[in-house]
Amino acid sequence: MSLGPTELILILAIVVVVFGAGKLSQVGGAVGKSIREFREASEPRSETTTTTTQSTAAGPITPATSTSTTTTVVAPDTKPPATV
Asked: Residue 24 contacts by C-beta under 8 Å, 6 or more apart in sequence?
């Protein structure tokens, strides 16, 4: 099943009615941008990116910053201590 020229014109007319002629260029731009981003994401990554990722993954893992967090745990069937 393929779309002939009559079907394409009918689909284009419906799109113009739904979106309006002014919004049609914005919709087309958004669709084009989406297709471009999809193609870029689906392309295989370059060799330099793969090499960098492999060498980074082999190194030791060190935290960027040291933070201290204090957590208080209260059992569900006990009351918290009373304050005086």
From this structure: 15, 16
Three-point CA angle 51, 56, 60, nearest 5° = 150
Q: CA-CA distance, 77 to 17, in Å (whole number)?
A: 64
pLDDT digits (tens, 9 = 90+) for 14-32: 988 888 878 888 888 898 9
**Tokens in use for 25?**
């260029």
Q: Which long-range contacts (CB under 8 A, 24 or more apart) does 65-74 make?
A: none
Among 12, 39, 38, smallest CA distance to 27 is for 12
C-alpha distances (whole Å) from 84 to each of 74, 75, 79, 81 are: 19, 21, 15, 10
- Supply the DSSP symbol for 81: P
Instruction: Dig out the tokens for 81 from the structure.
Output: 């201590």
